[in-house]
Design goal:
heterodimer, A: about 450 residues, alpha/beta, 6-stranded mixed sheet, 4-stranded mixed sheet, 20 helices, about 15% strand, globular, B: mainly alpha, two-stranded antiparallel ribbon, 16 helices, about 75% helix, flat
Chain lengths: ~450, ~325
């Protein structure tokens, strides 16, 4: 760390007053710290690719199983097409929290992210590259999937990879033992819950300590009552939360509360999934990843579509968050990146992934389902027949609105389900303030 | 040291001699300036060392503490999502905060509750432990270690421990109380927003008391025993000796403990974040700041406004406390 700065002062003949000592110190310190700061910047900038045959890839698949699955697909691409992919894996939650800084700094060429508003937001801010040209040649994606890959400007930005539907899960053995029938309407659902209570089961496993699991139930009741379009519009901030339609959602939800597991706000989703696995509870609304808590009992796990409430909407919408890939606006090697994205959009890449992680579903219709478990097969059927696919409250809406308003609001509802007017007014006021800051 | 000997003749004949003799009378004539002269005698190297040693921390403080603080204050008057440029919106963030952000009032209340609990319960408890252990009772080493033990744990770890202790269905506390199992009504220590803050305060207090105990043990060791003897000879009771003699003598420790108590109360974060992310009855200002700024939310201007409120509360508390303490010391 020998820098010229401090040495210069050794020759100065001025006698040091307190002020000059300080001045010298400030300069000296600057000379000492500045080069290291610059060095830090330089090494950060050096992470980018060199063009040609190299692509950088920012992966948020940090858990062991998904990490292995993604690596397998990437390997396949490298081998078959002769490119080099430099993968940079970051802890899933940290990646999410730093996404703003990441995209504005030195993002990798291709990176993992989510579909829906959460993607559209960054597209709108100009932080993503348009990939409509390669999207036009993709095969095997339904219109519903295409809509989820499209930005607000009508261009495609997102390469979908896999998804996991939300539904009502149960144990086949428990239903068989008591002779329960699959409910398709709300009344049947409530009647089943009542029957379970009589049979000594807690009807519904429910937890919201993490803040997000309750959102799935809200979304489903909302889509069953008011339809998918209203859900989209409400989440995008276009609707009034004091609308009777919204209040009706909370009113309907309140009917379920007596059948919920006690102490839900102190439980994580894993804990309440285990209650279902231990046959203490009868049903649970969650994503297909619930299977992770079942271990070897996973073959006994099945689900049914969320019951219909308003016949006009039936069971036509399915909540199935999609994960996939984006191209950053600063991609250093756009051509090679597009090659990679094109590969990742194929059924082959999805099969690579699913061979490692069987708790999810491939998005591409050409995906080889012969290796699917029974659960995956019913999942594929559920999503395949869905008229519309929603993402999830926190993916269909602004992240600031959901994380600072809705987590609190839903927990407030669960604690005090009777003041719906007050709650809706409060959400609406906060929503207005947050959405007003747009642009 | 050795080369000095070789140089000696040169120094003898050099210009140093006259300079030294010339300096001598000056020194004798103007004694008040002697102090200034002493600085002048520092070698360039000394100056350099002092410069770097003082300058570096000063620069770091300026850049890392004051510049960022001012930046926060500045940002609190803007609307900024972290992308593009910030837009000045005056005091709108503060208006929002006080009128249209329900967790804010709860968080302020919780921070004050935290302060009150530490100051009125945990700190006195730590003092009590210290006084008891200072009497060399049997097993005092054991008690000392046992009470100090939680201090080496981070609050995040204590958060995890509390979940094991206070879990509703299989937690130790409910099991001991016998409220689990058929027909029981287990208390939902962690999930009930009216109860969980107290659970957290007890756990945070558990750690704080140990910390305070160690500080006061050191303080008590430093009290001159002859003071106590003198008080005893004058007929003071044990209680009088403690409150009238020993406690006031420990003023420096009292100041440190007071400031630490305030800091601990206001910076509390990890324990609630480990339990449930600081929602549902465990809101704190620090959590709201994190939620708004660090996460995907990126309401940076709004989060900065909360940070400024926390800054004002901290600075207010610390200044008020130090002023009263120092004023008392003078009088």
């Amino acid at each position: 760390m020998a820098t010229p700065g401090p040495h210069d002062h050794r020759t100065t003949p001025i006698s040091p007053t307190r002020r000059s000592v300080l001045r010298a110190a400030a300069i000296g310190a600057g000379a000492v710290t500045l080069p290291s700061v610059l060095a830090a910047c330089a090494s950060g900038g050096g992470a980018g690719g060199s063009g040609g045959k190299t692509v950088t890839f920012g992966s948020n698949w940090s858990d062991p199983v998904p990490k292995k699955g993604v690596a397998k697909a990437i390997d396949d691409f490298q081998k078959s097409q002769g490119y080099t992919v430099k993968t940079n894996t970051v802890d899933h939650n940290s990646f999410q929290q730093n996404i703003n800084r990441y995209l504005q700094g030195n993002p990798d060429d291709v990176f993992g992210w989510f579909a829906g508003y959460r993607m559209q937001y960054f597209a709108q801010k100009g932080l993503l590259s348009d990939i409509s040209d390669i999207w036009a040649n993709f095969t095997g994606f339904s219109d519903a999937i295409k809509a989820q890959s499209t930005g607000l400007d009508g261009k495609q930005y997102f390469v979908p990879f896999y998804y996991y539907p939300w539904a009502v899960f149960y144990r086949k053995s428990v239903f068989a033992q008591h002779g329960y029938q699959i409910p398709t309407t709300w009344d049947q659902y409530i009647a089943l819950a009542k029957q379970m209570q009589k049979d000594g089961l807690v009807p519904i496993s429910f937890s919201d300590k993490d803040g997000w699991p309750a959102m799935g139930t809200f979304d489903y009741i909302n889509m069953r009552l008011n339809g998918y379009d209203f859900h989209k519009s409400l989440m995008a901030g276009h609707e009034d939360w004091t609308d009777p339609k919204v209040k009706k959602v909370f009113d309907t939800w309140r009917e379920l509360l007596p059948y919920y597991q006690q102490g839900a706000l102190g439980l994580t989703w894993q804990e309440s999934a285990q209650a279902l696995q231990q046959k203490k509870t009868g049903m649970m609304t969650l994503g297909m990843f619930l299977g992770q808590q079942f271990g070897s009992d996973v073959s006994d796990l099945d689900f049914f579509a969320y019951p219909s409430i308003d016949p006009a909407n039936g069971q036509d919408a399915v909540e199935a968050p999609i994960d996939g890939f984006l191209l950053s606006h600063k991609a250093k090697n756009a051509d090679a990146s597009k090659k990679l994205l094109t590969f990742l959009a194929t059924a082959k890449a999805e099969n690579d992934y699913l061979s490692v992680d069987p708790t999810l579903l491939g998005v591409n219709s050409a995906v080889d389902t012969s290796g699917y478990t029974a659960l995956q097969q019913s999942g594929a059927k559920l999503v395949g027949t869905a008229k519309s696919i929603s993402q999830f409250m926190d993916r269909d809406s602004r992240p600031d609105f959901v994380s600072t308003v809705m987590i609190q609001a839903l927990q407030t509802f669960l604690n005090n389900p009777n003041d719906i007017d007050g709650l809706c007014t409060s959400i609406q006021r906060q929503k207005t303030a947050i959405y007003a800051t747009e642009g | 040291m050795r080369p000095k000997a070789d140089l000696e003749p040169a120094v003898d004949t050099g210009p140093t001699g006259p300079v030294a003799t010339a300096a001598a009378p000056t020194q004798g004539r103007r004694r008040p300036r002697a102090g200034r002269r002493r600085i002048r005698r520092l070698t360039t190297r000394d100056r350099l060392v002092i410069g770097v040693l003082l300058g570096l921390p000063l620069l770091l403080t300026l850049v890392l503490v004051w510049a960022t603080t001012l930046a926060s204050v500045g940002l609190s008057f803007t609307n900024w999502d972290g992308i593009g440029s910030a837009k000045f919106i005056g005091v709108d963030n503060y208006k929002e905060l006080f009128t249209n952000y329900p967790p804010f009032a709860t968080a302020i209340w919780h921070n004050l509750l935290w302060l009150g609990f530490l100051a009125l319960v945990a700190t006195p408890l730590g003092l009590l432990f210290a006084v008891l252990l200072d009497r060399q009772i049997r097993f005092s080493r054991f008690y000392q270690s046992a009470i100090y033990l939680p201090v080496v744990l981070s609050l995040a770890v204590i958060g995890f421990i509390s979940q094991l202790l206070f879990a509703r269905d299989d937690g130790i506390v409910n099991t001991v109380l016998g409220t689990t199992g058929q027909g029981g009504h287990p208390v939902d220590w962690i999930g009930d927003p009216h109860i969980n803050i107290w659970v957290v305060l007890v756990m945070a207090g558990w750690r704080h008391a140990g910390y305070v105990m160690v500080l006061y043990l050191a303080g008590l060791k430093g009290v001159d025993p002859s003071l106590k003897e003198a008080a005893a000879i004058d007929g003071a009771s044990a209680r009088q000796t403690f409150f009238r003699v020993v406690f006031p003598v420990m003023r420096p420790v009292n100041i440190i403990v007071g400031v630490i108590t305030v800091i601990e109360a206001l910076r509390a974060f990890d324990i609630v974040y480990a339990i449930n992310g600081g929602t549902n009855g465990l809101e704190l200002l620090s959590v709201l700041i994190t939620d708004n700024i660090i996460g995907e939310a990126s309401r940076i201007g709004f989060g900065s406004a909360i940070a400024v409120v926390l800054l004002l509360i901290s600075v207010g508390c610390i200044i008020a406390y130090c002023m009263t303490e120092l004023r008392e010391e003078k009088s």
